[in-house]
Design brief:
Blueprint (H helix, E strand, L loop, with lengths): L1 E7 L10 H13 L3 E7 L12 E4 L4 H10 L4 H9 L3 E5 L9 E3 L5 E3 L7 E16 L7 E12 L8 E4 L12 E3 L2 E4 L5 H4 L1 H15 L13 H13 L4
Parallel strand pairs: 1-2, 1-3, 3-4, 4-11, 5-7
Antiparallel strand pairs: 5-6, 7-8, 7-9, 10-11
Amino acid sequence: MELTILHLYPDVMSLYGEHANVAVLRRHLEALGVTVTVRKLMADDAPDFSGAGFIYMGAGTERTQKFVLERLAGQGPALRAAAEAGAVVLFTGSAMEALGASVTDAAGTVHPALGLADFATVETDRRAPGDVIAHTDLTDSPVVGFMNKCSLTHGVSAPLFSRLSLGFGSDAELGPEGWHDGNIFATHITGPLLVKNPDLLDALIRLLAKNQGWDLPEQLPVLPHERDAYAVTLRELQSRVK
């Protein structure tokens, strides 16, 4: 079993330690006997999704996000083709906005995005940092995390999270959040999302296995302390829910 992970722009889109999502996925896959290659697409590299079984991009600043939008201009069809061919795609933080139709910055300039979905993002003058408890059909357990955005995303027809019990959704408090279409997953939740949520990580690994034709054991590897850490975080965040 072999897999190539393509990490998009880790030099400019890893604002909150998103490299940890790639590291923990690699560690879990290697515990299953998978030979993993991590290929990094850096700021000066031409986009190339070929051969990737997992494609990831994390959060950046408003400025670096616009830089990446320029670098990825016209690459929407190629990214969708990769996903339709079996690559699992995960974009977190401000990277999620790159998958929609456009991003309008605070000055009113419209920046075309990849166009994989019809939703559009508008930046605001209000930054809304905060912790999140999110609910998805992918896992029985809630997803925990942190979000720090100054934007509203309108028109998401297929949210990844049906609702939040803590935090601000795509465009409303406690509303739906993120986007999901086939093998493509996106959320404004930022940082080490897969480190904090072992059940979500397992769900993505099982999808990878299905797409790659691997046979997996019923019980996936559990790394030390990760589920204990999740339980502590969930308990702390639930104590804040009104």
